[in-house]
Amino acid sequence: MSRQAPRSPSDGPSGRRRTPLPGHHEAHAEHAELTVPAQRRTERPAMPAYGAPTAEMAAPHPLDGREGTIRVAVWADGKVFDLAGGKALAALGGPRDDTAVWVDLTDPSPAQVAEVAKLLGLHPLIVEDIIEGNQRSKIETTEDRIHIVLFSLEYTNRVVASELDLVLGPDFLLSVHDEDWEPRDISHLRGGLESVLKHGPDHILWALCDAVVDGYFPFTDRVGDAVDKLQDEVVDGANRAVLARLFALKQDLHAVRRAVAPVREILNQLTNREQPFVDPEEIIYFRDVYDHVIRLTDELDNHRELVASTLEVYLSTVNNNLSAIMKRLTGVTVVVAGVGAVAGIFGMSEAGAAFAGGEAAGFWLVTAATIILAVGAAWFLRRIDWI
Questions:
Q1: Between β-strands 172-177 and 100-106, what pairing exists: parallel, antiparallel or unpaired?
Q2: Which are the contacts of 16, defined by CB distance < 8 A and separation ≥ 6?
Q3: What pLDDT, on a 0 to 100 scale, did the predictor assign at position 32?
């Protein structure tokens, strides 16, 4: 096959759902409805001839009209055959020279996953992981099938992750995702499937991985804008609402890094280890995505440091406000102390004699001096911004 020139660095019924982070479960649960073959490999039916649809492909399929969407794109005989619905499963058959198959499942039911897995010869553990969902980002090789789990991210008020399962075989790529992420809308496929699919299923794998990673950058930009806004609000005035948003953003960044950081190891294995069904000529493409992930993790680390610094600024602002309050209280105490002294004098028995003119002029002199000193202290404390 020919190769493209290197590019520029540019819950549904099955239980799969968009997952608010944090909270990905590591444990698996068994599904009663899943039936997988006892043997480790399933014998595949013969591949139908491509061209005009066969009678089997045109006949209604038992899974038509069920939950989830099945689409199968096949590159054979220099053409792309794009089929949809349960009848598209008839296009899945045994290996054939110069044939590449991409099976795309959107919000599939367990029965749909089980049928596709039977036709593709997937190991029961891979099938269980796909149906269960809630995996972590990872790469596993089981019976010469590479299973990769990635997450596409959205950021509105909170971080929301959509799981994407990718399984690479000798002549096929299986992608399973929810309806919020449409793989055929990515930039690499806007010109049609032929330009990518003709290079093999490993090239489709690269295109999907690259699209997911590239989608992280607008996400990190929005997170950066949220950090900048919080920094301005902290400087303008620290309050409980700002603190709550600050802690929420810190938790989001921590959860995002847990979802994104493993992608670095995934791509490291794809580029530095021999993987079945990954053509050596594809390594340069995966290395480009690997470089993007390194830059992405650096940006996420910077955002986390900025959030931590903003939290320190918030705490410093709160301490400064407390110090200002203590200064004002001290100033008020100084002023009130002088007034209290005068009140204490007039509260004594000598007060009556003073107003009757029985006290000497010195009494009034001391009283006047006390009031003047109190007023002077108040003026001075006001000048130095203590009151």
A1: parallel
A2: 107, 108, 133, 163, 176, 177, 178
A3: 30
Cα–Cα distance list, 217 to 154, 298, 314 (Å): 11, 12, 28
Read off φ and ψ for residue 324, nearest 5 degrees: -65, -40
At 169, list the tokens: 């075989």
Nearest to 216 by CA among 163, 285, 293: 293
State the DSSP code for 11: -
For residue 142, give the 3-state DSSP assignment.
Answer: strand
Q: What is the pTM of this model?
A: 0.67
Instruction: Quote the tokens at residue 240.
Output: 């409980």
Q: Which two tokens stand for residue 26?
A: 């590591």
Residue 97 has a pLDDT of 62
Q: Which residues contact 366 (CB under 8 A, 6 or more apart)?
A: none
Question: Which CATH code of 1.10.3720.10, 3.30.230.70, 3.40.50.2300, 3.30.460.20 fits the domain covering 11-199?
Answer: 3.30.460.20
pLDDT given at position 42: 35
In contact, 122 and 170? CB cutoff 8 Å: no
37-95 residue pLDDT tens: 333 333 333 333 333 334 443 344 444 445 688 898 888 878 888 888 766 777 665 55
3-state secondary structure of 266: helix
Do residues 42 and 121 make contact, with C-beta atoms less than 8 angstroms apart? yes
Burial label for 188, CB within 10 Å (0-12, 13-18, 19+), is buried
Q: What is the pLDDT of residue 35?
A: 31
Give 290-315 as a 3 state SS string: HHHHHHHHHHHHHHHHHHHHHHHHHH
Residue extents of the structural domains in the chain: 11-199, 324-383
CA neighbours closer than 13 Å in the CB half-sphere of residue 194: 7
pLDDT at 241: 84
Looking at residue 52, its amino acid is: A
Q: Identify which of 372, 223, 368 has the alpha carbon closest to the alpha carbon of residue 305.
A: 223
Task: Report mean pLDDT in 10-residue bins for the chain, 387 residues.
Answer: 40 47 37 31 37 40 61 85 75 64 91 89 91 86 89 77 90 90 87 87 93 86 85 81 84 81 90 82 92 90 86 81 78 73 62 61 72 80 73
Residue 384 CB-density burial (10 A; 0-12 exposed, 13-18 middle, 19+ buried): exposed
